């Protein structure tokens, strides 16, 4: 398969497994091993193996790494740029209209209060796991957000557990402004050694007005507040939330409902 004869738009429609096989074909055609590509792209050979077998999605690779990686496989810069542009267009295409049984709104009208959304490619970390530094993540996702100009860099924290309910639920994506201003009692992302990145309230202890130590607390009262751990890094405030719903409910609500409730027709 010659990449010059393959449309970037066509390639952008391939699944991770298909795209991985395409790049493996290019590598073998050049007589190269994975370690050869890894050395040129400055990436781990094991990570490349995951990409070629479709266990990791190329769309989630950081853009600078992705450019080096695709160039190492022999794709020209203009072709790489066209491929990334095709991927971005896929994410902002509106869903196909489906047949409705009840008309609840006119689909051809935009509400006056609607806020335009823009695609942002963000690093995503799992809350309470992995490295305390968000720059270490290899996982990237496209997220539709309002205009975030002046609030960059951004990264996302996937919420785990119930400690921030009812503000944040498990599965929600908290969007964090790295280096943004921190206000008392704000919800922030904190990197904690051996505990990854967590999302909590941050405030000053009022019992020590002269030199108030920083405290972190959950939103759920069953979790008592604690001093900011030694060596912790406050990355920045949460500036947006992408809610995860299950059958129209938050995951916590869905788990509390019996199956017959979820399957009950209106």
From TrEMBL:
Q: GO terms for molecular function, please?
A: DNA binding
InterPro entries the record matches: Cro/C1-type_HTH, Lambda_DNA-bd_dom_sf, LexA-like, LexA/Signal_pep-like_sf, Peptidase_S24_S26A/B/C
Q: Where is the HTH cro/C1-type domain?
A: 23-80
PROSITE patterns recorded for this chain? Answer: HTH_CROC1
The organism sits in which domain of life?
Bacteria
**What SMART domains is this protein classified in?**
HTH_XRE (SM00530)
What's this protein's name?
SOS response transcriptional repressor, RecA-mediated autopeptidase
Look up and give the organism this protein is from: Thermus oshimai JL-2
């Amino acid at each position: 398969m010659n990449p010059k004869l393959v449309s970037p738009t066509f390639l952008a429609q391939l699944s991770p497994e298909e795209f991985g096989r395409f790049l493996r074909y290019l590598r073998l055609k050049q007589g190269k091993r994975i370690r050869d590509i890894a050395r040129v792209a400055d990436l781990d050979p094991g990570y490349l193996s995951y990409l070629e077998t479709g266990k990791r999605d190329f769309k989630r690779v950081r853009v600078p790494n992705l450019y080096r990686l695709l160039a190492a496989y022999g794709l020209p810069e203009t072709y790489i740029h066209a491929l990334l542009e095709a991927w971005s267009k896929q994410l902002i295409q509106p869903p196909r209209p489906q047949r409705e049984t009840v008309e609840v709104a006119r689909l051809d009208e935009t509400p006056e209060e609607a806020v335009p959304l823009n695609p942002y490619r963000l690093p995503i970390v799992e809350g309470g796991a992995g490295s305390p530094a968000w720059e270490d993540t290899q996982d990237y996702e496209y997220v539709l957000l309002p205009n975030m100009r002046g609030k960059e860099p951004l990264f996302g924290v996937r919420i785990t557990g119930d400690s921030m309910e009812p503000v944040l639920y498990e599965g929600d994506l908290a969007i964090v402004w790295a280096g943004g201003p921190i206000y008392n009692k704000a919800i922030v992302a904190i990197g904690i050694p051996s505990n990854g990145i967590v999302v909590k309230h941050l405030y000053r202890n009022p019992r020590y007005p002269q030199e108030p130590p920083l405290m972190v607390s959950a939103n759920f009262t069953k979790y008592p507040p604690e001093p900011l751990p030694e060596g912790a890094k406050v990355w920045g405030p949460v500036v947006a939330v992408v809610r995860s719903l299950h059958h129209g409910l938050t995951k916590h609500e869905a788990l509390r409902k019996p199956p017959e409730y979820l399957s009950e027709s209106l």
